[in-house]
Design a protein that fits this description.
Layout: E1 3-9, H1 21-24, H2 29-42, E2 45-51, H3 55-68, E3 71-75, H4 84-90, E4 97-101, E5 123-126, H5 131-147
Organism: Pseudomonas fluorescens
GO biological process, one term: amino acid biosynthetic process
Family: Belongs to the type-II 3-dehydroquinase family.
Length: 149
């Protein structure tokens, strides 16, 4: 039986490839999704890839991931810096939890440097572009294998 993993994407990531390509590149979220689904299948992970611009929807998906015992890879985007509801929901997750950012948030302006989501993440990958998602999947697969789940 494959391990469920939710890849959750926050606000404005649906505009990847169009929005600030000098920061986020030209790869679209649909292209990232295809790469993730392919790798997840190879790693025996049952991947659900989602994006929302709405905080409440993100919280609902995190609750769903918790109920299903799913690992979570989250690119919280703008929720990274202020969303206590998303942070509190992520505290429920008992399976591996990886935070991904396309840009290196530590090299950005002051308002984009400190992610509160990192407080609960098992790992944080930033600055590697779309590759970060694939590394997140590999980290989840490794954690699952190490824990015998």
């Amino acid at each position: 039986m494959s391990t469920p993993v939710f890849i959750l994407n926050g606000p404005n990531l649906n505009m990847l490839g169009k929005r600030e390509p000098e920061i986020y590149g030209h790869t679209t979220l649909a292209e990232i999704e295809q790469r993730c689904l392919q790798l997840a299948a190879e790693l025996n992970l049952d991947c659900s890839f989602r994006q929302t611009n709405f905080e409440g929807q993100m919280v609902e998906w995190i609750h769903e991931a918790y109920e299903k015992g799913a690992a979570v890879i989250i690119n919280p985007a703008g929720f990274s810096f202020h969303s206590i509801p998303v942070l509190d929901a992520l505290k429920l997750i008992e399976a591996p939890l990886m935070e991904v950012h396309i840009s290196n948030i530590h090299a950005r302006d002051a308002q984009h440097r400190h992610s509160i989501i990192s407080l609960v993440a098992d790992g944080v990958i930033c600055g590697l572009g779309p590759l970060g998602y694939l590394l997140g999947l590999r980290a989840v697969a490794d954690a699952v294998e190490s824990n015998g789940r």
